[in-house]
Amino acid sequence: MLDRITAAVDIRTPEGIAAAVSRLIRTGALGAGDRLPTVRDVAASLGVSPATVSNAWQALSGVGLITSRGRAGSFVLQASTTWMPPHFGGLAGSHVEARLDLSTGTPDPELLPDLSAALTKAPTRADTASYLSSPVLPDLELHLRASWPYAVGAITIVDGALDAVSRALDSLVRFGDRVVVENPGFPPFLDLLEHLGVTRIPVDVDGEGLVPGQLARALRLEPVAIILQPRAHNPTGISMSADRARELARVLRASEHIGAPVVIEDDHSGEISSAPAHSFGTWLPQRTLHIRSYAKSHGPDLRIAALGGPEALVDRIVARRMLGPGWTSRMLQTILFELLTATPSLTAVHDARRIYQARQRLLAEALVRQGVEHTVSDGINTWIPVADEKASMLTLAAGGVRAAAGSTFDASPDGSLAPHLRLTAGRVRDDFDDLAALLAAAVRAT
């Protein structure tokens, strides 16, 4: 193995050594579980200092390719977790710690509201009057209807935004159907479509949302559904503008003679988004399923979201769900209602929204000072173009920072998306200039 690594290294810097070992792992020349030669052996073989090899090992560890087991040595990690869907698994990252992990796509835990008061509102026994009672608490439904972006026919509660998208697709699509997705898009959506045997039609996203001309061409292929994120788009952090929403609604109306796809809107960050809510339900209420999730604002482990749309579509989803989990726990719904109405949690979410917006602005300004063109993103994620994705991730890893690879979000069939990184900027609390300097180096790394 030592000879194989030595032969693969053509640039004897930490980055060059890390890149060579990365290629060996990606091509299978080094397999999961293989023990790497010691740092001193590799250094002696390459004629470099042990510190140079140690820095290369740290970079590889930072991007999840190898792991150190102390005196036992360093080992190649499994390429992915076997139970994880392939696109989703690309977000899993490594099993080692980073000084600053910006790959997660999860909110800052310190900005989530305290659940203590809400938990006291839950019943002391997990009972229900009947298995056939309404699946949604009446008070919660009234509150949701009052805050919905349009007058909605029916609302139900499900176990998170991805559960809502999955159930919507299950009720709408059949094997061989076509579905429009954003490019870049959310990896679990790609896994869902592949699982269902559905052909995805990628439509590019620009600074205001889906590109109208591309959507018009995609509609000629008669898709049965369109999945989009109207606010704080993951991964780019853009939010759909009012003008773009109206333009896209006109495109959809103009194509009604071809077909009438259902629009599935995943508003996963609505409560912490600094942008107003724009829904196609305003113009196309009979063709829109709108999802409001509370993972980013109130906590990912709550696993709860609201799904609203025309009665015919929502009732079909509710009826099928009655033959599975039945309903989302009303104890959990009670906690959500308290979080959405109690002053302390409302204040906490308001503060989180303001802080996330400030962090995005501070990072954007720091990047601009480093000569990297960047605009302020919405929500917790931001999208940064780079010269070389692997080189940029290795550069960040050498500095103790982990990011998500942009290729994971590529919805195009030929993998043609330009190289990017997704950063969970909402988790950056300080040292924006230091991070921006490292990011600038990563952006230019080749």
UniProtKB/TrEMBL annotation:
Protein name: Aminotransferase class I/II-fold pyridoxal phosphate-dependent enzyme
Keywords assigned by UniProt, alphabetized: Aminotransferase, DNA-binding, Pyridoxal phosphate, Transcription, Transcription regulation, Transferase
GO molecular function annotations of the record: transaminase activity
Ranges of residues in domain HTH gntR-type: 11-79
SUPFAM superfamilies: PLP-dependent transferases, Winged helix' DNA-binding domain
Family note: In the C-terminal section; belongs to the class-I pyridoxal-phosphate-dependent aminotransferase family.
Protein's organism: Herbiconiux moechotypicola
